[in-house]
Amino acid sequence: MTKDIPGIEAGVGAGTDLRAGRRFIIGEHDFSAPRLEPALYIVATPIGNLGDITVRALETLAAASMIACEDTRVTGTLTHRFGLKTQLMPYHEHNADKQRPKILATLEKGEAVALVSDAGTPLVSDPGYRLVRDVLEAGHKVVPIPGASAPLAGLVGSGLPSDTVLFAGFLPQKGGPKKTRLTELAAVPATVILFESPRRLGATLATMAEIMGPAREAVVARELTKRFETFERGTLAELSEKFAGDPPKGEIVILVGPPEEAPEANEEDAEELLRQALTEMPVSAAAKQVARQTGLDRNDLYKLALDLKAGGE
User: Fold this and answer.
1) Is 234 exposed, middle or buried (0-12, 13-18, 19+ CB in 10 A)?
2) Which candidate, 130, 169, 171, 172, places its Cα nearest to that of 150?
3) Is residue 40 within 8 Å of 135, Cβ to Cβ?
4) Average pLDDT over the chain, rounded to whole?
5) Fewer C-beta neighbours within 10 Å, C or N terminus of the chain?
């Protein structure tokens, strides 16, 4: 039963007055949390299903002097669910410079501060890393409280290789920078994990198919841990076609399998590939594409492509 969870002290029942603080509720049972040593606690929270919260996370949030969070309304749903009375303080990219000194001052007084994001593990695609650096430079302790993580949940459910992984966060929104970033990621010998907005998903998958290759194995994970959780698996070309219509609802994680090892290629192979590519694209793009296909130096291929184009003209 919940009241037998080791490491926490059970209260006298659901009717116990929680206003004294350092208490939390699980189901019909309430518990007291042990005192915390002064530190900044990086607390992972559920990414959808509130049942994924850990007991250690609840202990930490209950015992902290304050909870720094992206959106007090979002975190307020969590604290209300588990009967937490800890003060909430907004901390996000727009007010970080103003709020960071307040957090440091609280730590200076020998108190504990918990940092949470709206969902998942803090510091993953949020401004928390700057706070951690300042806290460490000020000589305070930083304690991670692990838990839910959308990139890891997507990875373990994807069926893609998990031995080498690159988390790349959000792609640039504009076309040019996005293509440049995808070109950089295309050759990385790892499963690449990305976040994307539902409204940009179809266009992004089409660009990924163009840059990374239409046959590249990929997965779109949606609404992880929630009721309508789905994993759509296929090639980038197939997924691009599937999501070409109306944008889906919910949070999106894109996972792309590592590139296949390029077969050994000689200059004759490269020349033939360049001739084909030059019928569809300019010299620079052709050189980039053939470099990805063959593993040969792009600058050498660019010079060869210039010669072939000049000879053709």
Assistant:
1) middle
2) 169
3) yes
4) 89
5) C
